[in-house]
Structure formats: structure tokens, C-alpha cells
Write a structure and sequence with these properties.
Elements: E1 2-8, E2 16-22, E3 29-38, H1 41-48, E4 60-61, E5 66-73, E6 85-88, H2 98-101, E7 126-128, E8 131-135, E9 145-149, E10 153-155, H3 162-165, H4 171-182, E11 190-194, H5 200-209, E12 214-218, H6 222-230, E13 235-237, H7 240-250, E14 256-261, H8 268-277, E15 278-286, H9 302-307, E16 311-314, H10 322-334, E17 344-348, H11 353-362, E18 367-371
Parallel strand pairs: 4-8, 11-12, 11-14, 12-13, 14-15, 15-16, 17-18
Antiparallel strand pairs: 1-2, 1-4, 2-7, 3-5, 3-9, 3-18, 5-6, 6-10, 7-8
Helix pairs in contact: 4-5, 7-8
This protein binds nicotinamide-adenine-dinucleotide and zinc ion (ZN) (2 copies).
Length: 374
């Protein structure tokens, strides 16, 4: 079948909306009518080339934060039927590898293929004029329809709006889990969240959920600082230095229990400031990515790390398990204990994708989403 999708032909490049050929579902695959695709910063990193993808991935249909309705089921897809609502996890999980077996599905060996967006056998499900096209995270949420592996599919209760459920593919578990799991926030903790966009806002709600008594949001954009207060931040400031001072003020000079860095472009200096802001044996969680070219050195003192026993902790998908945590987050939403509606600032058509990303860069959205027409 033909489907309209936002495709990136080169890195760096711009998203181009094209009609691409989509294969029907094979063994272990579902055809999904995509309802919405969240505009995560990571897709912008792919477009700018800051997140290089393997050559066999290009061209690639974008979007890894999506949800939709099952239109067709391939062979060997037990439990799935036409009409089921589905969240497409940006990390697919095999259920069998060492990581899946250890409750670390986010580190599943399938991750080796996530950036190229190809099947296990290297083939692709999309093509344009005979040229194979990869699917971002194997999901391609910026496509009206997508054929996906069942390993990417998580069941969604039919009473959760799919536009909102899409955010539990990436942004919500990534931010929420960064606080709840990677930082292991405990009741009474003092937590700094640096960068409160689509990911960081969920780190704020995760920290509040876990019982932090002080949650300090740092963002240069005033509107996001105001929004952060409605997601559970007790303080919101424009500069990291102010946050560090506030955290020290609450801890007799010791520093924050955790600092969670969710900025769009993480710099080595921001990591150093995060490490400086935490207490002895505190945790600085890195969620946001930086320029590939900056992957060199973080200016932190080895002596401080050792003598103060501080921890720098990377966090992928909030160290969460898609098959456990996506349903749990959807249930928290159903119970009114997790905000999703308030995360969506602007809805775009697929044709307006580049405008949506421009708005993300200028800071006017917490999360923009593409709502597909069919
Ligand atoms: N680790 C993971 O699993 C994972 C998953 C998804 C996204 N990400 C990454 O997380 C980062 C954030 O993604 P997003 O979608 O929330 O992006 P976003 O653009 O919505 O949010 C980034 C926020 O950082 C703020 N910011 C910019 N400079 C800042 C500074 N100097 N100090 C404080 N705040 C600053 C911006 O105003 C914005 O609110 C990106 O790098 C993205 O690629 C990581
Ligand atoms: Zn994402
Ligand atoms: Zn696995």
C-alpha cells in the first residue's frame, strides 16, 4: 500500500513528506494506522546529524513516539487483532536476551538496530521508487501507516486517547523513569531537573511522584518554568547556578540528591555543573544527548567523584521496561495521577512537520504532536 510519511534523505537534512510504498505485515508484524506521532528532540538530532545513523538506515521515515490502531495482523501475532489500540515503544524488546531476561528491556539487544530501523534480517518495510527506506526506531510514527514488529507493540486500553498515549512511547517513560528509576528519587529528596521540555517535564512529574519535597526546574524559557510548577516543581529558575544555590539552601550546603539533565543539546560543561550540584553519593543522570562531535571529555574532577562517591548515570528510556512501564503509566493516567493532556502544546498536520520542529527549537512547545489524517 501507499502511505504518506516524513522522510529524511540525508544527514543533515529536512523532513520531506513523500508517498512511500509500505509492505504488508509479515511473520510477527502488525500493520498500524498511526493516530499521532510525538515530536521528540531525538528525531531532530537525526535531521541535524547530531545523532548519526548507520548508512543503511538512510533514507529514513521519522518518528519514534507513536500510537495507533491495528489494521492488519501478520502470521504468529498471538493476542493481537484488528482494531486493537497500540502504543509503539521506541525500543523494541525480544524478551529473550540477557537484558530482557534481567528486567532491563531498555537495553535489549534489538537496540543495535534501533537507529537504522531495519528488520533483524536487514531488510526494510518501506521503499520509494524501489529504494529501501528505514523506519525510525522500527516504528516510523511520522507515517500515516506503518508495519511494525510485535516486539515494538504494547497494548493500550481503548479509553485512553491515542494522541496522548503516543507520548508514552518515549517522552513520558524516559523522563519519569529518569527520576523514579535512574535517580531512584526517594520521599523527601531534593531534585534538580535541567531542561523541562517533552522529556524533562516528565522527570519533574516523576520526581514529584516519587515523593521529592523539593523539585527545582531549570529552563531559560519562562513559559516552561511556569508549566513545570503545574507538573510538580516547587521552584523554577533560568540558570543552573540558581538551582544549585537553592538545593544547597535546603540541604545544609550539601547539594541535591539528584540532578537530571534533559536539555536538548547536553554540553560537557552542563554535566560538570550537574555533578557539582549534587551531594556526596548523589546521582547526576544524563538523559539529553549532545553533538556527536562533543563526545570527548567531561570536565569533572576524578578526585571529587572518588572522594565524594558521586555517580554519573546514563539513562536510556528512563531505565524502564516497555512491557511493564508503558501499561503502568497509562494506568496512572487513567487514575488521574499522571498528566498527559497538559504535555501537548500544539497539534500539527504531517505537512507542517518542519514548522513543528522549528517551534520546538524556539521553545514554544512542551511537546508538539503530529495528528495524522487518513
Ligand atoms: N535518553 C533517552 O532515552 C532519550 C529519549 C528521548 C530523548 N532524549 C533526549 O533528551 C533531550 C531532550 O528531549 P526533548 O524532546 O525533551 O527536547 P525539548 O527540546 O523538548 O526540551 C529541551 C529543553 O531544554 C531546555 N534548555 C535548552 N538549553 C538549556 C539550558 N542551557 N539550561 C536548561 N534548559 C535548557 C529547552 O528550553 C527545552 O525546554 C534530547 O537531547 C533528546 O534527544 C533522550
Ligand atoms: Zn524520543
Ligand atoms: Zn531482548
Amino acid at each position: 500500500m501507499l502511505t504518506k510519511a516524513a522522510v529524511l534523505f540525508d544527514q543533515p537534512g529536512k523532513w520531506e513528506v513523500a508517498e512511500v510504498e509500505l509492505e504488508p505485515p509479515q511473520q510477527d508484524e502488525l500493520l498500524v494506522r498511526m493516530v499521532a506521532g510525538g515530536m521528540c528532540h531525538s528525531d531532530d538530532h537525526i535531521a541535524t546529524g547530531d545523532l548519526p545513523i548507520p548508512a543503511q538506515g538512510l533514507p529514513i521515515a521519522g518518528g519514534h513516539e507513536g500510537a495507533g490502531v491495528v489494521e492488519e495482523v501478520g502470521p504468529n501475532t498471538p493476542g493481537w487483532k484488528v482494531g486493537d489500540h497500540v502504543v509503539l515503544s521506541f525500543l523494541s524488546t525480544c524478551g529473550l536476551c540477557r537484558w530482557c531476561a534481567s528486567g532491563m528491556q531498555n537495553l535489549c539487544d534489538n537496540g543495535a538496530r534501533v537507529l537504522a530501523g531495519v528488520r533483524a534480517d536487514g531488510t526494510r518495510r518501506m521503499s520509494l521508487d524501489g529504494r529501501p527506506i528505514g523506519q525510525a526506531a522500527g516504528v516510523s510514527a511520522f507515517s500515516q501507516y506503518a508495519t511494525v514488529s510485535v516486539q515494538s507493540a504494547v497494548r493500550c486500553p481503548s479509553d485512553v486517547p491515542l494522541e496522548l498515549a503516543a507520548l508514552t512511547s518515549c517522552g513520558v517513560p524516559t523522563g519519569w523513569g529518569a527520576a523514579v528509576r535512574s535517580a531512584d528519587v526517594r520521599p523527601g529528596d531534593v531534585v534538580i531537573v535541567v531542561g523541562v521540555g517533552g522529556i524533562g517535564m516528565n522527570a519533574v512529574q516523576g520526581a514529584a511522584h516519587a515523593g521529592a519535597t523539593v523539585v527545582i526546574a531549570v529552563d531559560p524559557v519562562e513559559y516552561k518554568r511556569d508549566a513545570a510548577r503545574t507538573f510538580g516543581a516547587t521552584h523554577a529558575v533560568a540558570e543552573m547556578a540558581q538551582a544549585t544555590e537553592i538545593a544547597r539552601g535546603f540541604t545544609n550546603g550539601q547539594g541535591a540528591d539528584a540532578c537530571i539533565i534533559c536539555v536538548g543539546m547536553t554540553t560537557p560543561e552542563q554535566v560538570a555543573a550537574g555533578v557539582d550540584a549534587i551531594r556526596k553519593a548523589g546521582t547526576c543522570v544524563l538523559v539529553g544527548m549532545g553533538k556527536a562531535a562533543d563526545d570527548v571529555a567531561i570536565p569533572v574532577s576524578v578526585r571529587h567523584i572518588v572522594l565524594y562517591q558521586k555517580r554519573i548515570q546514563g539513562s536510556l528510556f528512563g531505565a524502564s521496561n516497555p512491557s511493564r512501564d508503558i501499561p503502568a503509566l497509562l494506568e496512572l493516567y487513567r487514575q488521574g495521577r499522571l498528566k498527559l493532556d497538559e504535555l501537548v502544546t500544539t497539534r500539527y498536520t504531517l505537512d507542517d512537520i518542519n514548522k513543528g520542529y522549528e517551534d520546538m527549537r524556539t521553545g514554544s512547545n512542551i511537546r508538539g504532536i503530529i495528528v495524522h489524517d487518513h
